[in-house]
Amino acid sequence: VEKLHSGVEAIGLGNLDYALAIKTNDELQDLAEGLNMMRERLRKTREKDKELVKLKSEFVRISAHQLRTPLASIKWGLNHLLSGDAGELNEQQRSLITKEFRVVENATRLVGNLLDVAHMEEGETTTRHFGKVRLEEVIDKSVDKMRDLAQEKHITLVWEKPKAKLPQVEGDFQRLEMVMDNLLDNAMRYTLKDGLVEASLVPSGAFLQVAIRDTGIGVAAEEIPRLFTKFFRGRRAMLLETDGNGLGLFIVKNIVEQHRGKTWFKSREGHGSTFFFTIPIGR
Fold this sequence. Notes:
Blueprint: H1 2-12, H2 27-82, H3 91-121, E1 131-133, H4 135-153, E2 156-160, E3 169-171, H5 173-189, E4 196-204, E5 207-214, H6 235-240, H7 248-258, E6 262-267, E7 273-280
Helix pairs in contact: 2-3, 3-7, 4-5, 5-7
């Protein structure tokens, strides 16, 4: 009975290699053999599921790589037109090409996100270039990229830069920049005209803590448990921004965890959100 109890507990915890060896020539042996058969079926199903995930990720990765080159070419051509190198554009032409340029930028971002998710699902680390990083510089760069959008949407964008010099963190600058880009982009997308988006950085024990606060649409209580999952977008978010892909927060969470940090948020529907993440201070 103790062996059965240990076996059921091990299988319940996900150890599908645990085989019950009970030779009592009675109902206990029959039960153990039945559990072993069930365990073997579960193990084969899990291996099949892993193979399917791997094939799906490989398909996404190959497809995304194939899309990158033509998208880059289209983006270069549109940028060439907007710069006036191919001749002056009238107002209607410039407006149309600008809209198309943004569509291509969104598609390029989606391709990049799909590649990152595929690598994560295949167990590949996305933080290969660790070194000493100043989070202030990461936030500076991300905030600067958002200033034009803030002006266009009539949103006040504030970066509360620390007055004192903070310690460096151990991290991948580009990946941490991706975390900031995604969080700021979300805050900008879901904050209405005349709203506020605010970034701050403070020490918190052995970590540095970043917060991105907005006065946007917030998150409905029933949607909170799914917010960091793949492809999930809230009902109000989809109504406000139709071209999102629901991958940004999933990527944010994975990158922060790869840096041994933590991600969380506070939100109230109709009253805005604050997203937080921490990164350990470098040794």
